[in-house]
Structure of diguanylate cyclase:
Amino acid sequence: MTKSTPSPLSAQPAQAGNNASPSTYRELALKSRREIHSLKRLVSRFIATCSGKNNLVDQKLAEFRDVLYSTQDVSALLPRLAVIERMVGHQNMTQAKAQSHLDEQFHTSGETLQRVTGLPAQLKRDLRDLLAQPANGDTERTQHLIKLLQLYERAVTLQVARPRTQQTPDIDNDQIRRVADELQNLITELDINGQAGDKLLEIRRELLTDISPATVVSLTLAALKLILEATQSERRASQQFLSQVNDDLVSISQQNTRAHDHATQLRLAHQGVDQRLDRTINDIEHELKRKGAAKANPEAALTQALAELKVIAQENKALKNREQALEEQLAHNQNQLSALAEQTLDQHRRVGDQERKRLLDPLTRVYNRAALNDRLEHEYRLWKKYQREFCLAVIDLDHFKQVNQQFGYEVGDKALKIIARSIYQCLRDTDFIARFGGEEFVILLPDADDETRTDILANISHTIRKLPLKFKNERVSISVSIGATLFQGEDTPTPVLERADQALYQAKNSGRNQIIWC
């Protein structure tokens, strides 16, 4: 092996105390490239999340990406950008859930329209074709909703234009009543605020009264429009938030770029001052060594060196002022980043609140059907694993529609709140209650032996029957019918729910106010 020859740079002493070695520069450059690469990945995720939803957001993200490409030191942004990345990811999941709910509502409304009798064959074929088409992306989803609305408008027009003598034989009043009940249950499960929420509550009030089939179809169409408007409003709010976040990030990035350039200039200026100071000191030392020599003039040399030192001191003072201004700019940028981080945390909390509300029935404040599906799947897996006794029961209030008709829906809602709370108080901490729809509740009793589950169901029936309900100075007694069953064998949640529902049907047909096991 041949021995390498030292390079001139490594062989010579450093000319200035603050000069960095080439290896240090290489390490800094590598670190800078890694940071920029990380930020490029974040920008890519932003674009993947928001692309195609808003042209302004796409433009701002592209501008932000371009700024990053020209920046050398953006390490101060990385921790805050990580917070934004997580927020956008969570917001994307929230939007995906909202889109899933909208898709479910779309198919429910389409199936409801399919069950309307007397519609032309061509309209039904168009409806079947529409429901069979997958919606890939927001644009296609919106087009599908518009087509469904158009089909509803055609159906309503045909129903209204048809003479009464032709309409009556084709109408299944029981089916229309079930559609109305299901629609008002769905409205109850929604947690939509503002004007759209108020209009949906008005639709629910109408659905609780005796209305014509044509009115049911019209109200269904109106509810679908309101749900679509609320979903679009929520999406616009999210896009505006993301746009504001990106504007702030672009502004901070530009400021940091300028600050970085200023810091580089200051470092070079300091190096120049240090080099001049070193030369001045060397000149003084040199003149002092020549003291007494021929043609030596130390006084003149010292006078010149003193003048040079004064100039250096003034330049150093100016550099300190520039450094103070830079520190103030960096402190301002840090405050902006802190404010931006606080905004994202607030948005995260709001999203979390919306997620919790999504699982609660807004009227009774017990869990809703979506939460029931999640909990039922969880308890089912535990039952499959440990084979402990697991009971599911469906509770229905007897003749509760008469309460709504006699006293009004507001009284009925108040009674539902009281009854839901009473059922909850009869349960153990490990049990679960959800409003299944209308006046029906489902309870889950995991790890409950025969005596425990029998006592719980009997206590629920007795407690509700003895509730001191009084409306318009008239005492009202409400009883419940309960259908209950156990998970066994190769059961899955769907057949167990159907079996409990069959037991409930038997309880109602056997005189109500009783518990039937199946």
User: Anything to note?
Assistant: DSSP finds 16 helices and seven strands in the chain. The radius of gyration is 37 Å. The longest strand covers residues 390-397.
